[in-house]
Amino acid sequence: MGACPLCQENELQAAASRPGDVLGMETGWVRLHRNQRYRGAAFFVSRLCVREVYHLDRDVQPRHLDELARVCEAIDVAFSPVKMNIESLGNGVPHLHWWITPRHADDPQLSAPIWENLNFLREMWTGTGTAEPTMLEADAALLRLELLRQGGGD
Predict the structure, then answer these.
(1) Quick check: is 96 in a domain?
(2) Which of 28, 56, 86, 140 has a 20 to 30 A CA-CA distance from 93?
């Protein structure tokens, strides 16, 4: 395994299913965020270790963005959010990945970014707030079924 933590995660997901792993697509891997404060929160992680979407080959870019949109649509169908937040950050890990955060009607800070939710940040910083493996697997299965219904996945 290489030094990139997301490349390592991709290799682990390719080798065996773990709670929260959804499926592989042509250009990326789908997995639920271990913290499910925002139910259905997921990552779409590029198979290629590039820093930015514009670093993908020009023929791969539209396919990657199409798959990102299909993952978002599947999350929308599976978890019925009122809004979807989509971000490509990578300041800490410079490997192209998308944070997909469904926002639900019962979210007490619906109009604010997740980064203003101090409880969420505390859980992220301390490693607490990890969802139960059975819940992660059940929600991963729900999302997997929707993606497969759409025709996605390896």
Answers:
(1) yes
(2) 140
